[in-house]
Amino acid sequence: NAGVMQNPRHLVRRRGQEARLRCSPMKGHSHVYWYRQLPEEGLKFMVYLQKENIIDESGMPKERFSAEFPKEGPSILRIQQVVRGDSAAYFCASSSVASSTDTQYFGPGTRLTVL
Amino acid sequence: AQSVAQPEDQVNVAEGNPLTVKCTYSVSGNPYLFWYVQYPNRGLQFLLKYITGDNLVKGSYGFEAEFNKSQTSFHLKKPSALVSDSALYFCAVRDTRANAGKSTFGDGTTLTVKP
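Output (C-alpha cells, whole complex):
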C-alpha cells in the first residue's frame, strides 16, 4: 500500500518561472491538504481539497498560488512567477474522510529552491 | 482560532534516560491533538493522537503522550530514549468546531539523544 507520493522531490526554478508540485494521495484517500514549511519553521496550512473541490484555502497567498484536485490524476499546487521567498518545503497530506479526528498522512515533500 | 506552542526549540537527553517534549494548545472547542516526527529531508510520520477517552495515549516506537485539559497540554514522553529517536518533533491541533481539515502545527522541537 503505497503512501502519499509527491514529485518532484526537488525543484529548482529561476525567479519569474512557474512551479508545479504534484501529490498523489494514499490509495482510498479522497482528501488532500497542502502545507508549507519555511526554513527553521513549522508547517503552515495552505489549502484543503476534495476531488474537484476546494474546501478551505484560507492559508493560500492571494496571488500567484493555486491548487486543484481533479477527478482523475494527482493534486497540483501551482506557483506562478516564483520569487525567492517561495523557497520552502511543500508537503502534501491525505486522509480518507473529512473528519477532524482522521489522521493526515504526509508525503516526503517537494523542496523548492528559487534562484 | 487554534494555536500550538512548543516552548523548547531543543531538547537534549542521554540514551536510556526518559524524555519529554512539551506542547500546549489553545482552541475554542474540544481539541484533537497529534504528534508527528520528521527526520532530515523526509516527510512527517504520524506518532499518535488524542481524540477522546484515556488521557494517556500510546503510539509508535514506544512513545506516549498525556492529555491534560486543565493545563491545556499534550506532552510527548518516552521512558527510555534511543539515539535513533533524534529528530524534529511537531505537535498539531485541530478544533472540533473548525473546518475538518485544517491542522495547526507548532514550530517543532529538535530532540537530540546522545549515546
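The interface with chain B takes residues 4, 6, 31, 33, 35, 41-45, 48, 55-56, 58-59, 91, 93, 95, 98-109, 111 of chain A (CB under 8 Å).
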